[in-house]
Amino acid sequence: MLSIRIEKTDTPKQLPAADNPLKFGTIFTDHMFIMNYETGKGWHDARVVPYQPVVLDPAAMVFHYGQEMFEGLKAYRAADGRILLFRPDMNAKRTNNTNRRLCIPQIPEEDFVDAVKALVKTDAAWIPTKPDTSLYIRPFIIATDPFLGVRPSDTYQFIIILSPVGPYYPEGLDPVKIWIEDDYVRAIRGGIGEAKTGGNYVASMAAQLKAHEEGYSQVLWLDGVERKYIEEVGAMNIFFKISGTVVTPMLNGSILPGITRDSVISLCREWGVLVEERRVSVDELYEAAKNGTMEEVFGTGTAAVISPVSHLRFKDHVLQVKDGGIGELSQKLYDTVTGLQRGQIEDHRGWVFEVK
Ligand SMILES: *Cc1c(COP(=O)(O)O)cnc(C)c1O
């Protein structure tokens, strides 16, 4: 069990008012978690402290060579008052996979989960209670050696911050239009696409701006080699329902292995829906949209859970998905995953962790 020192703030902030829309990532709670790492000493000095600025040497390696990683998960307040996390053990595992790729030291999985639980418990009053609200949890690690040479850092900070967030869909699931990007790429096999790190996000911004200018809300990324196979949509994984079969790009080294993706695949298989993880080409989508066999398209990720797609734009073609509405399977997956997360549906898979 990770030993965590808890230092509470003397000056708690005012909790957001009941009518605050809690715009994503704008409000932060009273406390944060920090733990330090030093080669030879390992991870040490785990503590929950008042939310405060991080003071670093301007030569700190994270500023120059991007050696950093992050995670994203949520805590939910169930109707009976319990505080629930959804598959935080998977975030811990993914942290270590990311860390391996980025030469950041491993963190014991139990310590990661204990740190999340300790911080959420300290700031439990900040978990919003209105329907579809939650407390977003952002763990991250930064390289802190004050050194301009290029090598992995010998010192790190593992930090967790919390942010109460409003409903992703204030008026219910809302289909989005997506732009299939054939110029910029997000990631390539052998690169860092399967690691959750800022470098992939900065690589995506120019295309995201371009899509916005064209009136599309998200970018659909193609593979970096042939620019032919679908990878992800924005910072979500993507699924297609074609002739009754659910198809999603297989994890190929440049796709981020989403926990929502994994949950959706498991649920579909339990329901007897055939799921194929394989390569999906733009040509196949084009055909399926044209001959009417493209039944549903949706993105998956922690923020939106399920994000239905109504239109796909590729070069000069606009493909409409069915009637542009919300598919039956998309809605069922949304209701089931959010029901499990909020304790409205009983969990028999070991996915829901209670914070006590
Ligand atoms: C985090 C992330 C996802 C979604 O992962 P979840 O675990 O489902 O939230 C998908 N793609 C990218 C690029 C991501 O960073």
Note down, in words, how this protein is organized.
This protein starts with a strand and ends with a strand. It contains seven helices and 18 strands. The mean pLDDT is 96. It is 24% helix and 30% strand. Pyridoxal-5'-phosphate (PLP) is lined by residues 72, 196, 200, 232, 235-237, 256, 258-261, 300-302.
Number of helices: 7
Bound molecules: pyridoxal-5'-phosphate
Distance between the termini: 15 Å
Q: Which bin fits the share of residues in helices?
A: 10-25%
SSE order: EEEHEEEHHEEEHEEEEHEHEEEHE
What structural class results from the helix and strand content?
alpha+beta
From the alpha-carbon coordinates, what is the Rg to the nearest angstrom? 21 Å
The averaged pLDDT comes out at 96
**What is the beta-strand fraction?**
25-35%
Quantity of strands, as a count: 18
Overall morphology: globular
Residue ranges: pLDDT <50 for 5 or more in a row?
A: none
What's the short version?
The protein is 24% helix and 30% strand. It has 356 residues and is α+β, with helices and mostly antiparallel strands. Bound molecules: pyridoxal-5'-phosphate (PLP).
What are the SSEs and their pairings?
Layout: E1 5-6, E2 31-38, E3 42-50, H1 61-65, E4 68-70, E5 73-77, E6 83-86, H2 88-102, H3 109-122, E7 134-143, E8 155-165, E9 176-181, H4 198-213, E10 218-222, E11 230-233, E12 237-242, E13 245-249, H5 259-270, E14 275-278, H6 282-290, E15 294-301, E16 305-314, E17 317-320, H7 328-341, E18 352-355
Parallel strand pairs: 1-3, 9-10, 9-16, 13-14
Antiparallel strand pairs: 2-3, 2-8, 4-7, 5-6, 5-7, 6-18, 7-8, 10-11, 12-13, 12-15, 15-16, 16-17
Bound molecules: pyridoxal-5'-phosphate (PLP).
